[in-house]
């Protein structure tokens, strides 16, 4: 970090993240040697990470968060309110947001990136006033989020998603939803509706293979399948983000969409159930700034060693 004054970084590590208990001292030393003064803080009773950021806004110049997508989600409102730039140390189960914007999976390499890049403007999604980094879903993914416990995440990692998903598939059923967007209203029968801001979600799934977190668009898709086994055929495309080409997948891009259901259904935002239908989605363009490679320098397939070399 250039300049004669050391920048103050609010430093928050979620000890409950899957990798949150790994030795963090070397990462701290790297950041401090690079010119940062780390200010430790943690939520008190009843506080969220957003509350901590708002409370400490005058004591820091940036925020560094060690954790996964759920940890980042808890900090989103505070980052938007204060305008403080964000540095990410990926310590969670999936780290889908980090992968989307080209942050290295290794925390040491991620720390080097914080020290060597300028913060980039990043969009956020919003549903019923709840912000999200990656994706918000109704249906199967929301049921998965409700059943995938923190204990299972920490024990099984990404495999935990597959174990619980397999159990849920056999009993999943389609539901009716009404989708309003761009001047039209459509009635659909679907197993899952998803609205993505970034590219990756769910520990390896892809919302849309060309999506970025700074394109000013939401990517909508609906899995309109008749039988659960149809999802097995779709799985390779869901991982690649090319499912929009299938006849039983409805997909489009927009900046705002409303999803209504006959009875309230839970909405999953970045892995946590946060609100219910009717769900009003919209894009929040350039809502926060994140230390990341510029858009043209991101390599979404080779996050690890390539990024380590790029910032060394």
From TrEMBL:
Taxonomic source organism: Phyllobacterium brassicacearum
GO CC annotations on file: plasma membrane
Annotated keywords: ATP-binding, Kinase, Lipid biosynthesis, Lipid metabolism, Magnesium, Metal-binding, Nucleotide-binding, Phospholipid biosynthesis, Phospholipid metabolism, Transferase
GO biological process, one term: phospholipid biosynthetic process
UniProt domain DAGKc: residue ranges: 4-131
Record bears the keyword Isomerase: no
GO molecular function (one): metal ion binding
Keyword Repeat: no
Listed name of the protein: Lipid kinase
Residues passing through the membrane, by range: none
NCBIfam families: PRK13057.1 (NF009604), YegS/Rv2252/BmrU family lipid kinase (TIGR00147)
Pfam family, one: YegS_C
Necessary cofactors: Mg(2+)
């Amino acid at each position: 970090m250039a300049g004669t004054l050391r920048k103050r970084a609010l430093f928050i590590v979620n000890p409950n993240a899957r990798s949150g208990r790994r030795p963090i001292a070397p990462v701290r030393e790297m950041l401090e040697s690079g010119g940062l003064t780390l200010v430790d803080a943690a939520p008190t009773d009843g506080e969220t990470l957003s509350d901590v950021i708002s409370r400490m806004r005058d004591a820091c110049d940036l925020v560094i968060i060690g954790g996964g997508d759920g940890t980042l989600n808890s900090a989103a409102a505070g980052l938007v309110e204060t305008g403080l730039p964000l540095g990410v140390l990926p310590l969670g189960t999936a780290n889908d947001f980090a992968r989307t914007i080209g942050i290295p999976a290794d925390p040491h390499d991620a720390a080097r990136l914080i020290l060597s890049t300028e913060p980039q403007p990043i969009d956020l999604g919003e549903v019923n006033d709840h912000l999200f980094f990656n994706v918000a879903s109704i249906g199967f993914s929301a049921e998965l989020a409700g059943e995938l416990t923190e204990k299972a995440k920490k024990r099984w990692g990404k495999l935990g998603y597959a174990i619980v998903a397999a159990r849920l598939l056999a009993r999943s059923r389609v539901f009716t939803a009404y989708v309003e967007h761009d001047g039209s209203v459509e009635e659909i029968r679907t197993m899952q509706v998803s609205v993505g801001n970034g590219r990756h979600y769910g520990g390896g799934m892809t919302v849309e293979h060309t999506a970025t977190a700074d394109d000013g668009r939401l990517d909508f898709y609906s899995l309109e399948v008749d039988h659960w086994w149809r999802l097995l055929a779709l799985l390779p495309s869901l991982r690649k983000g090319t499912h929009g080409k299938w006849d039983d997948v409805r997909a489009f891009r927009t900046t705002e969409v409303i999803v209504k259901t006959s009875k309230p259904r839970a909405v999953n935002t970045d892995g946590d159930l946060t609100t219910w239908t009717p769900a009003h989605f919209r894009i929040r363009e350039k809502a926060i700034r994140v230390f990341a490679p510029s858009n043209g320098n991101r390599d979404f397939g080779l996050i690890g060693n390539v990024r380590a070399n790029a910032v060394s």
